[in-house]
Amino acid sequence: MNTKSFFIIVSLLLLGCNSNHDNDKTKLVVGVVVDQMRMDYLYRFQSHFGENGFKRFYNEGFVAKNHHFDYRQTKTGPGHASIATGTPPAINGIIGNDWFDRQSRKSRYCVDDSTYKSLGTARAKGKAPTALLVSTFADENRLATQMNGKAVSVSLKDRSAILAIGHTANGAYWFSGGDEGNFISSTFYMDALPAWATDFNTSRKIDDYLTTWDTYYPISQYAETGRDDSPYEKRPKGKETPTFPYDLAALAATNNGYDALQATPFGNSLVTDFALAALKGEGLGADDHPDVFMVSYSSTDYIGHDFGTNAKELQDAYIRLDLELARLFRALDTHVGKGAYTVFLTADHGVAPVPNYLTDNKIPAGYFRKKPFVKALEKALQDAFGLNDIILDVSNDEVYLNRELISSAKLDVDVIRRFAVAFIQRQDGIAAAYTTTDLMKMDADNPIVERLQNGYNPKRSGDVIYMLLPGYIAKRTYGTTHGSAFIYDTHVPLLLYGNGIQKGQTFKRTKISDIAPTICALLEISNPTGVTGNPIGEALLSR
After folding, report:
1. Which of 12, 132, 173, 318 makes a 20 to 30 Å CA pair with 355?
2. Residue 395, Cβ neighbours under 10 Å: how many?
3. Which residues, 6+ apart, have CB-to-CB distance to 210 below 8 Å?
4. Is the peptide bond before 372 cis (omega within 30 degrees of 0)?
5. Which pTM was predicted?
6. DSSP per residue over 275-301, as a string?
């Protein structure tokens, strides 16, 4: 071999090494959040899944099988905030979907901000992530790329889209139902909707879904759930029984227009449609600066609330969601390139079984009646201390005391807190109650105590925190809900695959706050400003 040939071969090898190094970098991180998804749904419904949706994670990626929320407020707002920031409500400030604001003495919704206006609608109030006290991993990626890496999010719910993506996003989009049926945004992110979003709304793709919802497979194959006509499920307005099929055009006429689609799998289909338009319209994953794309599927939450965890409707929703994931992944393969993007999938919370279903099967459970509870607590405090209006608010299982009134009456607020705790603990359906002062002194090695502490924000939380018994929820006439520190609400999936992800699984306990630092480690960028979690090292390939 002559010298010239040698240098040509070496140059080609070096060029190949540089090319491979560039290909090692992910062009797009996609975060999929399924609203109200318990981990056991993956096991229960897996025989009905295809190879290109949920199973793609099992076949090609990494599965964390013991993944949990590490705080009590297992709800949509806190869930999306904690996924994105790597820190619990105690630090990121999103202690509920809404909470009592002591300064205004009113309830504050987690993404309301009248400083801004909504775009694409004449109805909605201004929205922004200004209540979120820390950065997200998407924010950190924007900073690390000198704002060249894009950040976009899509959901039916405003709080899901906004809190999942953060402060520096190019756009967050959510659904405005009723008679509009549009995806909208906020002047916090932009001055006007981009042309691709306006074109999508103008296309009226949404009208294709005002059709009949029947089971995807013959209902006789849905052996993993209970009977179709169940006493535990909501009867939609205009329909006598909660049974298939559902005439969605007829239901839209009696259930606030396009809102009727949200509690059907077609709400998720609509999110995929808009996500694919955003993928193309924003050119996500098209250059060397990594982008972040958050896609939150909310219809499973609406369906779960209405029908419960053992419903045919829920099973069909997950079978159809599997198809939506396959559709999303096909588009990513085409537009970004297989191996050029990274996906993680998780949930913003789990959900409790329907208490009546449990009790009918001799399992302890029940319902908690908040109004008589609050009335009794107010009377007990008035009788003991001689003050009216001593309670400002009771929300998110927290009691807010009127500290100014207590101080002016020269009473000891700690004495009143402890009296309230003693009274609450005697009530039916209550597992425990704590003053927040005492709570923060307790041993965090107790997992329930740790979750309560991780949900306590000194400036936003109440004076007393209480917990319902396992299997208990706030009284409702049908369906179920979530929001506790118990395993049915905390245990959710974490699935990863794609660029930089190691194939495998773990039963080691991982936390929702570990997701953001794992993605930051993958991107080799700084962690969000409040992060408390740790990277899941075994999920990542060594570079």
Report:
1. 318
2. 16
3. 248, 249, 252, 261
4. no
5. 0.95
6. HHHHHHHTTTT-SSS-EEEEEEE-HHH
